[in-house]
Amino acid sequence: MLTHLHACLQYRRSRPVRYVVAAFTAIFVVSTLYYLEIPHHPEGFQDELREHLPHWPLPIPISGGSESKTSPPVWEERAAQVKQAFLHAYRGYLQHANGYDELRPLSLAGVNNFNGWNVTMYDSLDTMLLMDLWDEFAEALPVVKEGNFRQLRASNGNGWNKSGYVPFFETVIRYLGGLLAAYAMSGEQVLLDRAHELATILEPAFGSSAGMPRFGVNPATGASSQGVSGVLAEVASCQLEWTYVAHATGNKTHFDRVDKLLHTLANAMEQRKGGMFPTHWHLNGGKATSESRSMGAAADSGHEYLLKQYLLTGKQDVESLEMYILTANEALTRLLYLTPNRELLYVTDTAGGSFTASHNFEHLACFFPGLLALGAHTVDLNAALAAIDPSKLSAEARRQYEVLSKYDLHALHMAAAEGLTTSCWLMYADQPSGLGPETVQMRHDWKFVGEDGKPKVNSKGKLWIDAVEEWNEGGRRGPLPGLGEKKTITQLRKEDGTAQADYSVRRPDYFLRPETLESIYLMWRTTGNPVWRERGWQIFQAIEREAKTPSGYASVKQINKSPAPQSDEQPSYFLAETLKYLYLLFKNEDLVPLDKWVFNTEAHPLPVFNWSSWEKHKFGIPS
């Protein structure tokens, strides 16, 4: 891509990352010392060592050495409580909404939001397997086997079904992802057969000139919607599912679909010369139509799948890794800010070419710290950055490269992951309900004294990377910016009675979303620090207290009240993601090792694999 363009376009998976052996060895040693927190080095030791390193080492934020006050049997009991919560939600669905997509837990009725194909059941299959719910899984198999993907059921929900099209993105991540994960975990052939059938039905969506999927497909006629515009999250979040279904079935058509999409993304990154992909795209041209950036609703999983595609293919798809590194570079240097009160770290979005930050912080963006932790845990980030030729980058992307090339990226990514996950958790802990809001507006009015000695206000906000640079230059006094102890607003007000929140709530809803718990789970698995499990337990208790109904769980309208008023909806992802991440967080056994499985954006785990020699020959993948 950015190194050896022609090889990228024709042999995307063939070029290996150029590892810098000496740098890797030194970085590994220093990172290990920090991670283990080996104390009492001679004075000047780190300064002397730093002279021989290509990167500035940073302290690994949270190491895995602290002891938990909660015993392993208690964690197993807490996992059992999550299992009971799943059964409560799923049985309520079967009793009151069987045959429909989702349960309305207050009116005790079913609703068809996603094709009318029992989406809650499909989304729940692999959660059942992880929880050893064999009877529920066995009873679902005949329903899955007999399901009719060619016929839409009448919509009484969001109205997509009335158009005659099934939404490509939602159908892929929920139905196709659910089928593939359940097949990978159970070996039940019927699940793979249905996944192959569904993928074939959906493939007309790839009919745009650039191979970017359109919004929807009419499953009865095979016609696709004809729009030429799309958002990144919807047009670049199917690589995992199509790659795995191609591998599992040996179907070349499935492979060709994903291969063309990956080439389009690689070409777009090459033409843009680095940086993050913007939010809006022209599907035929395969090019961005805006310069807006986001880690939220319009873009989130599009960024997520870059790293995960690399991991899923046994770290063979190097171009996807490079795109992830360039994406993370821009996010770390241009989208991460600090609040002036508690120095909370947050990621925001920008609109247009001016790159003016909105300082909105979405719950959906709380997946990002978990992605950073996953990347730091599975990838040699410094070597991956070194493999990119900065002369091929735009001026701005090269600036980002040069800023970050000074650091140990493993430590920097983990620092950002810790700070962001802490902020996401505080959005919950600050509220009377204990649940987190959908969107907040972060304070960014930093006060300082100008050169003339007069007080001034920086209304544009403080970029995290600038604060890190100042911290470095100032002798590294105190914790890394955005880290350190963070008290809740309630705790601070008890101390002085005047503490102000670092944000205002713009949307007070809690839609039973999983993103914060996803990152908390990944922080636990990558650091081993039990504080993340305790924070997850607090959130689960809040869900039980505020969202539970006699027949399921309901979204919450106002997180700033307790008891919180409820909404008449139980999203399928609550069973597929929220409860799954909680269960995995509390189980002592690592049921889904991060080096062996990759979660799709709906938390359906797909197994890491390597293309066989025959697959490479059949699909035209260079060895």
Automatic annotation (TrEMBL):
Its EC number is 3.2.1.-. Disulfide bonds join C366-C424. It catalyses: N(4)-(alpha-D-Man-(1->2)-alpha-D-Man-(1->2)-alpha-D-Man-(1->3)-[alpha-D-Man-(1->2)-alpha-D-Man-(1->3)-[alpha-D-Man-(1->2)-alpha-D-Man-(1->6)]-alpha-D-Man-(1->6)]-beta-D-Man-(1->4)-beta-D-GlcNAc-(1->4)-beta-D-GlcNAc)-L-asparaginyl-[protein] (N-glucan mannose isomer 9A1,2,3B1,2,3) + 4 H2O = N(4)-(alpha-D-Man-(1->3)-[alpha-D-Man-(1->3)-[alpha-D-Man-(1->6)]-alpha-D-Man-(1->6)]-beta-D-Man-(1->4)-beta-D-GlcNAc-(1->4)-beta-D-GlcNAc)-L-asparaginyl-[protein] (N-glucan mannose isomer 5A1,2) + 4 beta-D-mannose; N(4)-(alpha-D-Man-(1->2)-alpha-D-Man-(1->2)-alpha-D-Man-(1->3)-[alpha-D-Man-(1->3)-[alpha-D-Man-(1->2)-alpha-D-Man-(1->6)]-alpha-D-Man-(1->6)]-beta-D-Man-(1->4)-beta-D-GlcNAc-(1->4)-beta-D-GlcNAc)-L-asparaginyl-[protein] (N-glucan mannose isomer 8A1,2,3B1,3) + 3 H2O = N(4)-(alpha-D-Man-(1->3)-[alpha-D-Man-(1->3)-[alpha-D-Man-(1->6)]-alpha-D-Man-(1->6)]-beta-D-Man-(1->4)-beta-D-GlcNAc-(1->4)-beta-D-GlcNAc)-L-asparaginyl-[protein] (N-glucan mannose isomer 5A1,2) + 3 beta-D-mannose. GO terms for molecular function: calcium ion binding; mannosyl-oligosaccharide 1,2-alpha-mannosidase activity. It holds the Pfam family Glyco_hydro_47. The keyword Membrane applies. InterPro entries: 6hp_glycosidase-like_sf, Glyco_hydro_47, Glycosyl_Hydrolase_47, Seven-hairpin_glycosidases. Belongs to the glycosyl hydrolase 47 family. PANTHER family: ENDOPLASMIC RETICULUM MANNOSYL-OLIGOSACCHARIDE 1,2-ALPHA-MANNOSIDASE, MANNOSYL-OLIGOSACCHARIDE ALPHA-1,2-MANNOSIDASE-RELATED. This is alpha-1,2-Mannosidase. It comes from Trametes cubensis.
